[in-house]
Amino acid sequence: MPITERIQAEISSHPVVLFMKGTPQFPMCGFSSRTVVALREAGADMSTLHSVNVLEDPEVRANLPRISNWPTFPQLFINGELIGGCDITLELFESGELARMLAETQKA
User: Fold this and answer.
1) Is 73 annotated as a binding residue?
2) What is the pTM of this model?
3) Which of 41, 43, 63 is closest to 54 using CA atoms?
4) DSSP assignment letter at 100
5) What 3-state DSSP class applies to 47?
6) Annotated binding residue at 86?
7) Where does [2Fe-2S] cluster bind (predicted)?
């Protein structure tokens, strides 16, 4: 399967997808770590959070920024839509919006 289709399949198959360096249990960069903490504190179901370790998949790491038009990692997608990286996720968490968005995915 071409990389573009693989990435789209990841995004469309899960309500919350985090493309990150490392895993939620073992983040490999500060930005990924802060994003995971924000998701956890906003009420994300960590047992069902789907993450993709871009350090283990160089094809995804190289191609996702071109597909999403977002240059850095982590990249958070909710309901198939790019939310953004660490800074945007933290802003949404601070405002309470992230918790609302995550709650919507758990109702569906």
Assistant:
1) yes
2) 0.95
3) 63
4) H
5) coil
6) yes
7) 29
For residue range 20-34, what is the model confidence (pLDDT) as tens digits?
999 999 999 999 999
61 is in an annotated binding site: yes
Structure tokens at 17: 């997808």
pLDDT given at position 83:
97
CATH of 3-103, one of 1.20.1740.10, 3.30.420.10, 3.40.30.10, 3.40.50.12780: 3.40.30.10
- Pairing outcome for strands 50-53 and 75-78: unpaired
What's at 47, amino acid-wise? S
Q: Is 81 exposed, middle or buried (0-12, 13-18, 19+ CB in 10 A)?
A: exposed
Q: Decide if 81 contacts 74 (C-beta within 8 A).
A: no
* Distance separating alpha carbons of residues 24 and 71, to the nearest angstrom: 21
pLDDT band at 108; cut points 50, 70, 90 = low
Residue 21 labelled as part of a binding site: yes
pLDDT tens for residues 53-98? 999 999 999 999 999 999 999 999 999 999 999 999 999 999 999 9
